[in-house]
Each structure stands twice: as structure tokens, then as C-alpha cells.
Amino acid sequence: ASIGKTKLDSGWLAARSTEVGLSGTQLTTSHPPTGPAKPWMEAVVPGTVLATLVKNKAVPDPFYGLENEMILDIADSGREYYTFWFFTTFQCKLSENQHLDLNFRAINYSAEVYLNGQKRVLQKGMFRRHSLDVTDILHPDGQNLLAVLVHPPDHPGTIPPEGGQGGDHEIGKDVATQYVEGWDWIAPIRDRNTGIWDEVSISVTGPVKIIDPHLVSSFFDNYTRVYLHASTELENRSTWVAECSLSIQVTTDLEGGVCLV
Amino acid sequence: EHLQTQHLSISPGAHVQYTFPQLFFYKPNLWWPNGMGKQSLYTVRISVDVKGYGESDLWSHLFGFRKIESHIDNATGGRLFKVNGQPIFIRGGNWILSDGLLRLSKKRYKTDIKFHADMNMNMIRCWGGGLAERPEFYHYCDIYGLLVWQEFWITGDVDGRGVPVSNPDGPLDHDLFMLCARDTVKLLRNHPSLALWVGGNEQVPPEDINKALKNDLKLHPYFKNSNETGNFTEDLS
To answer: How far is Cα B69 from Cα B88, in angstroms, rounded to an integer?
Structure first.
């Protein structure tokens, strides 16, 4: 496998959790879904549960007329109704001393991840990244089965008859976007934006991983003398001392395709 | 002069923080907001090679050399901004999010943000009841020169106001709020368009959260000694 990131943004399936009688372990070992056959449907990832339901015409499009009124609100349906399974597969065969991370850039609001029968929990919070080192649970033949059970915010709230900015404000008890109970400019979002709402990717590294570099510049002599300060976290995931060469390179493309290194 | 390699040993299983010696640039092309100059961007690549293995990981990001300052003006009570030492008149627009079902696409971000630049705006304010916007949003703000005012997830309507007052102490889990805030800062902090973090919309976050945000987001002492023209005292260099 080559070093770098691969997005998992196609071939996803989704199903309402109450309509799937299997466990995450079964879904990712003996009984994977084979395609968009009931209760499974093509999923929008990244996106929300409602985006998937609209794409499959399982609900009317909430942006037309009063059709949002026809969609069951989570306050009336309960959180299970918008608790959804998302399923996909990916191919990856590592060579020796390589590691694979499974990255979720944002999930609303919490989730359980099953990969080839193994379970990992993604903690609550809409605005946080999750990165799982899954090296040890990859399938030997390279074909991996991934299922994610996504749970809505803990406090989805109830929309008062008079509506109002933020509904009954219950959503404010969670660390999540607050407009979803409705505001003066938008009707309530029925699933409170539950879902895998940002990028999912796998990234291959060698024994040492670069984490969250930070770039800062400082200026002197009226912006003619400038310094770039770069720092980064590094993690050695091997069992031996890693002798590293760390390089930083700054380039800019000048006009006409000339590149200054 | 813009390529530097350092050697270091990392123990098995260790998680270390490493800082490169600073890289010097003579009169680099500066990044300017829309209407003030070019949005010059450099590609910064960081790679790590491990002896006996080869390239182990690679990271790259567009970077703009710019200095953004702002302070509350006593005379007007308004916040005055400077970019690269030059005062800037802020022409801003409010932003909530590009799609209520979070079908967020690069194409949509590019179109929406270029539209703001074409309307001669130079700032976009991301409202606290919406999202911490995504790297693709900031990427196009970098490209088109829109400064970004990014609010955290507190609003006057939902937190600490109203009759009866709702959520007087904000979200139930303050540690979770700070974990999300710190991770969001790490996700977005290298974008030149990021100009201002704001605690919330029309509301100050609960005291402990506000204090923690101010503490985490204050300028590192190393960069603090800047004087009016944006220079640091000589001894720093």
C-alpha cells in the first residue's frame, strides 16, 4: 500500500437500525449486506441520515413547499428512528512495518465502528476528529468490511408549536450545531443533522506518523525578513527506536508554471 | 534555502512534539485579503523518512505569509483589523452553512465563496449556531481572500437567555466542549484566512469555557513582542 490518504466516499449503504436484525460483528463477517436491497439503500457519505433518505425518496424533499411537515420529527419518532447503520468495504494490503488509520473527520453525534468483526467506539461530540489505528484488525486477504452505527445527539429536543429560535433549546445541552431545532430562517431539521457528516478516509503510514503540524510566521524589518516556524507531533508506532530524517520544503508556483523551490 | 532536513531518534511507542529551526525568507510574497493585494500561497510539505524503511509519512498544506491583528477601538467600541500592518475596512457577510442536510461539496463552497469575493467582501462570519466550517471552506477563503471570523457553538438564544433562561451554564459537558474546540483549532489553524475565533453568537460562553478558550488561543509568548509596524524586537531574531 502506498503512503498517504484515500477517501472512502463511494459505495456506502445505509439502513435504519431498527430494521436490521444483525449485529455489527455479523454485518462485518458472516452477513454483510450485498447491495441496496431493503432495508439497505444507497447512502450519502459524507452527509446526514436525512440526506440519504431524501436521495432514496424515502421522504419528500424538505426544501420544497411544506414537505418538511411530512417528515417525522425525531422528537415524535424517538432517537432510534434516526439511528442508522452505514456500511462499506475497502481494499488494503499493508507491507511490513506499515500502519493503517481509519479517520472520521466529523460524526454527529456518536458511533460504534465495526471492522471485520472488531468493535471500536467513537465518543460523543459533533466537532471532533476520530482516528483509529486498525492495522491489527485488517483482513489478511485485503478485503475489509466496515459498518458504522451512528446515534443522534443525546438531547434532540422538541419543537414547540410556536417554533422559535432553537426550539426548546435542549440541543444546547450537547456539543452540536444549534440551528437544527429551527430558527427564524429555517424550519426544524428532522434528524438534527445526524450522520457521518464529514470526510471518511484511510491513511497508510510507515512506522512513524506525522500528526497536526502547526505553521506560524513572524515578521521583521517591515515584512522583508520573515521566518516560518513549524512544529509537529510525531508518533513512533514500531517496537524499535526510529532513526528519522524530518524534512520541510516550501514551494510556490510562480506565473507561467515556473516553480520556485 | 527553503528545504531543510533534521535528524532525530524516536523511542518505540513514543509520541513526541518536534519544532524545526525557523526557516528564513527574504521578502516572501505576502497573503492579502480580497481587494488589498494578491492571495499568495506557498505549499509546505513535511515528510519523515525512517532509516531502514524509507518514507514513513507525508503532510502538505497551503500556507500564506500574513500578520493579522485586531483590537477594540476605544472611540467607537468596534473591532479594528490590520493585515500586514495595514488597516483594513471590513466588509463582511454572515454565513450559516451551505446545506441543511450537510451535503457539503467543494464545488458549492468554491461557488459560494467566490460569490462573496465578487460582491467585494473581505470577511465571512461563521455564525455560532451553525458549524465549525470545514477545511474545504477555508481552502477557498484562502484562495479568494476572505478573512474568516469563526464562532464556537454557543448562541444567545439557546444558552443563558430567554424566559425561562435556557442552558444557563451552556452544554452539559464542558470538557467535551473544550475537547471539540481544541481539535477544531488543530484542524483549521494553518489557514491564512482564519482571522478571529469568537466564543459564541450574542453570548459569552460559560466562565470556565471562556477562560479556557482565551487561555488556549492567546498568542504564544514567543510571538508576543510585536510593535506597531508588525516587527518584533530585534533580540527575538
So the answer is: 10
Closest Cα in chain B, distance from residue A42 (Å): 15
Residue B225 pLDDT level (bands cut at 50, 70, 90) = low
The answer, yes or no, to whether residue B231 has pLDDT greater than 80, is no
Residue A205 with chain B: CB contacts under 8 Å: 56-57
The verdict on a CB contact (< 8 Å) between B56 and A207 is: yes
Q: What residues of chain B lie within 8 A of the CB of A237, using their CB? A: 13
User: Tell me, what's the ipTM?
Assistant: 0.95
* Cα–Cα dist A246/B145, whole Å: 31
Does residue A44 carry a pLDDT above 70?
Answer: yes
State how far the Cα of B30 lies from the Cα of B92, in Å rounded to an integer.
Answer: 22
Q: A interface mutation test: which of B1, B30, B38, B48 has the most A CBs within 10 A?
A: B48
What are the strands of the beta sheet with A41-42, ordered from one edge?
A41-42, A13-16, A84-91, A143-151, A110-115, A118-122
Which residues in chain A are closer than 8 Å to B43, comparing Cβ atoms?
250-253
In whole angstroms, what is the distance from residue B38 CA to residue A254 CA? 12
